[in-house]
Amino acid sequence: MTHVQSDTRMPINPPDSGKHAIPDQPETRRDRVRDILSARTLVPAIGVLILQFGFILSYLGAFHAPTPHHIPVTVVAPPQVAAQVIDKLNSVDGQPVEATGSTDAAAARQSLQNGETSAVYLVDPTGDNDRLLVASGGGTSVTTAVETLFTTAAQQQQRQLTVDDVVPLNPGDGRGLSGFYLVIGWAVGGYLFASILGIAKGSRPANLPRAFWRVGATVPYAALSGLGGALIAEKALGALGGHFWEVAGIGMLVTLSGATVTIALQTLFGVIGIGLTLLIFVILGNPSAGGAYQPTLLPTFWRALSGTLPNGAATDALRRVVYFSGHGAGQGVAVLAVWIIGGTLVALTAAAVIHRNRPPAPD
Question: Taking the model in full, what pTM does it have?
Answer without folding.
Answer: 0.86
